[in-house]
Amino acid sequence: MRRLRLAFAGTPAIACPSLRAAATAHQVELVLTQPDRRAGRGRKLIRQPLAALADELGIPVEQPGRIAECLPLLGEAAPEVLVVLAYGQLLPPAVLQAAPLGAVNLHFSLLPLLRGAAPINWAIVNGLEQSGVTSMFMDQGLDTGDIIFQKATPLGAQETAGSLAERLAEMGAQLLLPTLEAIAAGAAPRQPQDEQAATWAPLLAKTDGLLDWSLGAGELDRRVRGLDPWPGAHTSREGAMLKLFAPTMILPDNQGRQPGTVLAAPPEAEGMLAVACGEGALALGSVQAAGKRRMDAPDFLRGAGPGPGDRLGD
Prior knowledge:
Helix content is 25%, strand content 25%.
């Protein structure tokens, strides 16, 4: 396989396996990421995950406020292909055209399903049976380019956004290499997307995690898992936020109680936080009270947790 000269644009940890794979098989001349950010109580400057990996691999890194600022550097790097994975900005036409063999995106859904910023989360929230990775040639639309290859994976009954992200990150690295090999050989397929089948996966905000207990337990189960670990499904208890995480269990009986009422957990959900829903009940295995760390539900309930009959979400 001919080694290609690449530039790689990405930011979060899910892009790291693909950069490592690309750097093993090809020559990565430049990595572009979002600027480092401040986090934590001390507002310490944190290196972006992909930038940290590029440092480790000895690849030059640029972190512009706007990617168009890097056009001169892209010209100097002279990549044949620009690889993009979760960069965090829309790429202007001049950047898309900076590499003669094209800009290639890895997207974590089976396009045209779930175009947009949060396909991993929405695959679970929407109750899809499978997800996957798509490699495509980028155009000026949002995830609208011609498909090169796709690889599917079934979603497990206890799949969370976190567990799916880890699996798709590795699958993306596995799909990137044959994609680049096909491009190097001039044999990459181009399958136009079916616009009539397109669905969307909009960016999530913390407010999207608020649970409406009047909904059915199945729908709330998917939302809890689809927002785990971020932004986290949440309710309120005595006026303070309470985040709820997997593992989950759907219970058929809400014991005739009002939605949001804490129930005495049945034997099969012993130790879990069971809450009545509009239909059935949902048992949660992990929680995080305001100002506290995430903990297993049994520890929470043994401490200052709510008891049967208490209400959540008021």
